[in-house]
């Protein structure tokens, strides 16, 4: 009998989708969920669920090893602000952070993956059981971007990649060749709101992977909440990186985008600009 899949769950719906995809493939799932981050509904999607606080790395590894997990997936984010509030590392977590000496997402996640693998738990791509969530290049919505919006998309991709190389964020909001907002520690939604309000309608939102991003566990994602917020502030275009972005609840995203007149597309970014190969399940 195959060993269960360990699911290290962060926030949002993505961990539940990963659990469902694995179960549909006949794989048992054992979850470790984060207090204050992971949705309680995860418990209904897995064989067992153990709750931990952010930073309890030792407890995560013990839980997965005791369950017999030889593979694990990291799905869903952890708000970086959590590192400054409600952060309670155990001994292994504290020792790990002391060695890392950085709070940059990519380095932290690579380090955590290294800790898991040193204990015999192989970290697999978060899209392993959900390849349909990662779009190919092209216009996804009914409406295609207009010429001036395409110019802002091209500009936004260049800016977002440059910003990502400094581990700042994945999202920028632009209009008429001007950068109105750059995602930082506050997250994508706050950046969209700030940029959209400054634009007073017609903003273009661009979300890409960081050049050095390890897409086994840190895949950029958008979902219905992204479209809802864009509609609220009058943003008109959402561009994501093809092959390296997850679209959660795709049918609903495109239905809501159509109602709001928002163009959604996946753009093909040259490999030399994206810092690596394609996303997890598409290597």
Describe this structure in words.
With 283 residues, this protein is α/β, with parallel strands linked by helices. The protein folds into two domains: 5-123, Rossmann fold (3-Layer(aba) Sandwich), CATH 3.40.50; 132-282, LpxI C-terminal catalytic domain (Cytidine Deaminase, domain 2). The protein has helices at residues 14-24, 57-66, 91-100, 105-118, 147-164, 188-199, 224-233, 250-260, 271-274, and strands at 5-9, 29-34, 48-52, 71-75, 122-123, 138-139, 171-175, 178-182, 204-207, 221-222, 237-241, 246-247, 263-267. The strands form three sheets. A six-stranded mixed β-sheet has the order 6-13-11-9-7-8, sandwiched between helices. Strands 3-2-1-4-5 form a five-stranded parallel β-sheet, sandwiched between helices. It has a two-stranded parallel ribbon with strand order 10-12. Strand 1 (5-9), helix 1 and strand 2 (29-34) form a beta-alpha-beta unit. The radius of gyration is 19 Å and the shape is globular. The protein starts with a strand and ends in a 9-residue tail after the last helix. Mean pLDDT is 90; it is low at 273-283.
- Count the strands? 13
By CATH, the superfamily of the largest domain comes out as LpxI C-terminal catalytic domain
| Anisotropy-based shape | globular
Describe the biggest sheet? 6 strands, mixed
Which architecture of the largest domain does the CATH hierarchy give at level 2?
3-Layer(aba) Sandwich
Order of helices and strands: EHEEHEHHEEHEEHEEHEEHEH
Global Rg: 19 Å
Distance, first to last CA: 27 Å
Number of helices: 9
- Give unreliable regions as ranges: 273-283
Count of domain modules = 2
- Overall pLDDT, averaged? 90
Name the strands of the widest sheet in spatial order: 6-13-11-9-7-8
Structural class per helix/strand content?
A: alpha/beta
